[in-house]
Amino acid sequence: MKETTNGTRTGRFSKSPSADPYPLVLDIGDFKGDFSFDALFGNLVNDLLPSYVEEETDTSEGNGATDAVPNGHLNAAKATQALSSPFFPEVDSLLSLFKNSCMQLVDLRKQIDQKLYNDKSEVSAQDSKHRKTLSELEKGVDGLFDSFARLDSRISSVGQTAAKIGDHLQSADAQRETASQSIDLIKYLMEFNSSPGDLMELSTLFSDDSRVAEAASIAQKLRSFAEEDIGRQGIDSSVTGNATASRGLEVAVANLQEYCNELENRLLARFDAASQKRELSTMAECAKILSQFNRGNSAMQHYVGLRPMFDLEVMNEDAKLVLGDPGSQPSPSNVARGLSSLYKEITDTVRKEAATITAVFPSPNDVMLILVQRVLEDRIPKLLEKLLLKPSLLNPPRMEDGGLILYLRLLAVAYEKTQDLARDLRGVGCGDLDIEGLTESLFLPHKDIYIEYEQSSLRQMYKSKMEELRAESQQSLESSGTIGRSKGASISSSQQQISVTVVTEFVRWNEEAVSRCTLFSSQPAALAANVRAVFTCLLDQVSLYITEGLERSRDSLTEAAALRERFVIGTSMSRRVAAAAASAAEAAAAAGESSFRSFMVAVQRCGSSVAIVQQYFANTISRLLLPVDGAHAASCEEMATAMSSAEGAAYKGLQQCIETVIAEVERLLSAEQKATDYRSPDDGIAPDHRPTNACTRVVAYLSRVLESAFTALEGLNKQAFLTELGNRLHKGLLNHWLKFTFNPSGGLRLKRDITEYGEFVRSFNAPTVDEKFELLGIMANVFIVAPESLSTLFEGTPSIRKDAQRFIQLRDDYKSAKLAARLASLWPSSS
């Protein structure tokens, strides 16, 4: 194929120059590379079809411009011409060309097949030759591998022999070196064993400062050997019983001990001199040599002992920093700041020493252990001895001097800050020291009886608080001047009323004590026991405080009751005396009302106080007791037992409050109720439908006095109190009305009073009381209806028939209407 000038490919064939009508010659090379059948076919037929191609092009270009007529039919002349000439005149030439091309293609295929056969034969011959060569090479390689294996075995054998020779040479060299060293050691041992105390004739090695490390090593070896030899001779002598056995190395041992001591002192002196100059390299060299003497303990102890942080003056300054001026009372906050500052200084100093120790000593952890141990066994205990002076429980310090609580607070501050110091020192590094156990041991003398101090402190603070409250009350009484007994009783009660603030202060003391229990008690069982002991103190304090407060309020109620008894108005006394007695009774009633309110306030504050304690138990105490079986339940029982005394005082006081109210109601009814209220004259004037004056006064009094009860009481306590009061009021009103005679208009007035009382007691929310007053309203109808209607009045409520009979006897026409006989005939079973 050939490339044309416009880039298209042409067929790769040539034409013969002869007159052969089929000059096409196909070549094998025409089918190589990127062969295209379309290109080959086009090159075959293009020479035969040029005119056809041109005509086809012209026809396509002119189609539609000349062949079409308006009616869409072809030109008839052209159609006739087309039918007269052949449609494809080159077909014969093309068929001949294709036949010739097929023959040439068949020849080409035969040539290719022959060439492929020749190439295949040649490849087969070459492959056989190659296989033979590979077989020969494999045999040669196997022989070569065998040779290499023999060579490797030989090399291994030679290497093992060389290694054995090397080991023998090394062993011989080591033996030679050991023998040489043994000779030298024997020589040095003989020098030390020459004469007791004579160190002047020793070799220069033992006096040369530049060879101190070597001299120390040799001296330690000689000393160890000599002591071991003496010990072995002693055993042999004891076994054989030979008392005259040789003891020839005793002199050497003594001289070596003396020399080692001298050398150690010399090194320590050099170490101290280098330490003062901060020559760390010299210090490290001396420490390394001294490590051969008793593992360097003397050097480590010597270094730690000379630290300025352990000087007596420094430790005296510690006490001044923490405690302040001598003779002044330390405060926990100032002590906490002082300890924080001091412990930070100690930690920083230990951290600086740690850097030096790491650079100097070969075993820095051992030195840090000694240093931190010295801090916790020397410096800190001396400070704590001055800070924590354990007071006497039999004769505790006064609260003015801080009391026991000051000791406990200082103990907690010191313990917490010292624990922080231990953690900081652990972070700096202290080797294998049990720093937590060592820190705990510092406070064991205080923690062993800690809970006794806590309980005594709570009792002391309670006693002091009670004395303070009594002093305030007494001062208030004195400032108010001379007053009457009744007025004084009221004032005294108000001045000594229960205070929720005081109870909150008790809880705050207890919460502080519990926080110390948590700090000092690591085990759950010990913590629960201490917390229970502390919480029991709170229960005792609150129980005693509120019980005494309730009892004081009860005393006011008792005094008011005594005043009422003194000024009861009799029947046979002059008007003047009666007026004075009535005035005194009014004063007694005012005292009773004041005492009632005071007691209700006390009950309310008592309830608030108990609620505070219960909330504190639920939020703080219970979670500390629950991990220990039975502790929580036991504490709940203790709480119930402690509050029972207060409940008893409250119950008695509420009974007295009911007595006070009923007594005043009876006094008002007796003083205000007139006989004419229920037996108004029949003068033609319209009856008065208003409540009587006595009823109005009683309801007003009850509304006023019970306002405090509605506020103070709640829940079942309120319901029980109001129910009991309602029953007593019903009974008192019933007995009061049995003293009067009623006509019909008076019956209407009574019914109006009963309605007024019933509306008031409805605020009690006591169904039984409401029912009783409703029945009273029904019974009041006996005064209103005609005698002949009484028989049908109680048909639906036979239960009140007995009380109704008593009411019927109070009718003003009971005798005139002969109601007794009528009732006997109506209700024979009740007569």
From TrEMBL:
> What are the Exocyst complex component Sec10 N-terminal domain coordinates in residue numbering?
92-208
* Keyword Cell inner membrane appears in the UniProt entry: no
Q: Which family does it belong to?
A: Belongs to the SEC10 family.
What domain of life is recorded for the organism?
Answer: Eukaryota
Q: Which organism is it from?
A: Salvia divinorum (Maria pastora)
> What keywords are annotated for this sequence in UniProt?
Coiled coil, Exocytosis, Transport
Q: Name one GO biological process term.
A: exocytosis
Exocyst complex component Sec10-like alpha-helical bundle domain residues are: 214-821
Its recorded name reads: Exocyst complex component 5
The record ties this protein, via PANTHER family, to: EXOCYST COMPLEX COMPONENT 5, SEC10
Gene name per UniProt? SEC10
Q: Does the keyword Coiled coil apply?
A: yes
